[in-house]
Write a structure and sequence with these properties.
The complex is a heterodimer of chains A (531) and B (258). Chain A has 531 residues and is mainly α. Chain A has 19 helices and two strands. Chain B folds into two domains: 161 residues, P-loop containing nucleotide triphosphate hydrolases (Rossmann fold, 3-Layer(aba) Sandwich); 67 residues, no CATH class. The chains are: A mainly alpha (531), B alpha/beta (258). Chains A and B meet through α10, α11, α14 and α19 of A and α2, α3 and α4 of B.
Amino acid sequence: MAVSARYFVRLKLRLLANGLRGRTQRVTLFVIGAVMAAAAAVSGYALFSVIGVLGEQRAAEVVFPLTGSAIVLGWLFLPLIIFGVDESLDPARFALLPLRHVTLVRGLFAASLVGVPAIATFAATLGMVHAAATLGGFFAATVELVGLTGGILLCAALSRAVTSAFATALRSRRSRDLATVALAGSAALLGPLQLGLRSAIERADWQGIGHVVDVLAWTPLGAPYSMGLDVAAGRLWAVPIKIVVVGATIALLLWWWSGSLEKAMLGAKSGSRERAASQRTPVDQLVPRWLPRNRFGALAGREMRYWWRETRRRATLISFVAVALFLPVLVAVSGGPAGASGAVLVFVAALAAVSLTNQFGFEGSAYAANVVAGVPGRVELAARATGLSVYVLPPLLVISVVASVVPGRGAAAPALIGTVLAAYGVALAVAMPISVRAAYALPDSTSPFAMSSGGGTAKGLLSFAALIGATIATAPLQIGAWLLGDVWLWIGLPVGIAYGAGAFVLGLRIAAPMLDDRMPELLATVSAGSQ
Amino acid sequence: MTVPEQRRSPDAALALRGLVKQFEAKVAVAGIDLDVPAGSFFGLLGPNGAGKTTTLSMAVGLLRPDLGQARILGYDVWADPIAAKSRIGVLPDGVRLFDRLTGTELLAYQGLLRGMDPTVVDRRSVELMDVLQLGAGNRTLVVDYSAGMKKKIGLACALLHAPRLLVLDEPFEAVDPVSAALIRGILQRYVTGGGTVVFSSHVMTVVERLCSHVAIMADGRIRVRGTLDEVRGDRSLEDVFVEVVGGRTATGSELSWL
């Protein structure tokens, strides 16, 4: 009694359509996302096909596996860090149906291929088919098409397997720390690759890149995208081997995914934690010693608990720390120009604050308690920013110091800290109004990376908007630092703090009245679908 | 702080005037007028989907009505939300609690959020956890509580700041008989002490035992209202309810394959 994968696909499309029906804001976000994805797909297609039209066989042999690898890695990391995965078909909901495991995996996998990102990726890479056709004729194009199909299957399987495994790991306390290390470690693995490329490009060493790419083309990362070119170059024997490499990788990933899927279906709830009875008074249990015993203290104390106790938020924090550790270290090690570490840290600081762009979505309908208590918007938003800052400011400060001291520019540390704080403040200011105006509900799922249909696009878009806004708004400081030279080393810290604090207060002034005006509407938005 | 003309109907703890709410194509609440006398134990009855939750949400400021007014102890919920909201305790249904906190942390949170003195919060939280048999030293997260325990901690949150009006949405759903008896006792004492309780339910026996006043809703309108005896007459409340709502009674011929 095999249920066709078609039903899963149709179910997903139906959920997407119902989710959009009558919700203008969501439709708008979805359309914007789709248009941007289409633009990316068209430009990708153009880039790849032009290489073919120009008849640059060698260039294609370098560019295709290279961009292909970037695409695969993007599918691996972007869901973890920015987009989340579309889990409108929550595996746990199928637990009671008499479905065979294979059927379920096949169906969910097919459904995961139906989505804007997968279609856009596939459309962009079709340019490689065009190129293969001009370079090697019909047969080369056919083989490249087979390769691309394998490529998109690989991307989808990879992102599912990794997010699912990471989610399972995060649920159990024992493996949580392990998962953190694993994510940071795998992010750091990108380092050597990027370093090699970087130095090769700096030396304009096409030969060196060529060697790296020739190896890459045999790994699952590059193999799907280089098959057609092998035909064009007369290396027919390479095609079956690469097909086996890609096919085996997909099979392995699906097998891994199906394992963690089973765990997700059975263990929808983590076992209750045994906690020792506390002798402290209720208020002391909630509010840390250094916070005032009032509304603000209660809100900030609860936020601090939530950033650690709720899987979704913890995953956000962990991903942030992984990126925050990895990026600056990469820049410091690769010895970029003096301004590079500053620019990267601005990005990292903004990334931290951007996790607040959907701060009200995290707890969903529980926000009703604050609505009933009539919490003033100013207190609410300030307390939430405080809760996050407790976790992200220490790593930001440490990284700023390390990033200045390691390359021997210790004197620049205060100014760099100033810039980072300014960026953080500005990004908070941008994120706060967005979180009030453009909140969206998160699905009530077991996976911290789960997004409802189309939600991933919205999440990514809003985060990107906040990131770009924050980076632009910090530009005056960066320009100042560049123009002022040594003077900046002295005034950077106070100016940065003032700039960040000023921006934060401004953002608060804008967002707080908005929140006061639309608390019930916000509650309705974030609790949609979670009941 | 109190403007005399704001308190137009001091006798009503909760006064609703012409409340309307429409969701997309469906009219959930189609114009409701209701006065809940101060000191009464008021039961709002209705079948599933009658609009009870929507009505109560609009009454306490969780959902903005399309039309109409809601007054709590004389204060307009939508014009003067702070004054109105500080006087009520609410137990919403189908809404999550901040369930990643422990029970005591949640109570401390609610108390401070209501601007209470920390020492009072501490004293009352411990007492409530104890009385509601949730265990004063219990450090389990609320998310791991059973459904009945969640109702009890929700009720404790609503009671903590000693409001003069309690609005409870389905307070007895998923509660075991022992806990239900406990909750009934607490609520009865609260009303005896001068408080007002409004609660929604579709369990007739509970309503008959507790309420002084009832209103029956169906399809977004109030069909019958009055004191319990006025509504009930010499019949059982269940008979009146089924008649008013117009339910279908089984003839015995359907579902023959069962």
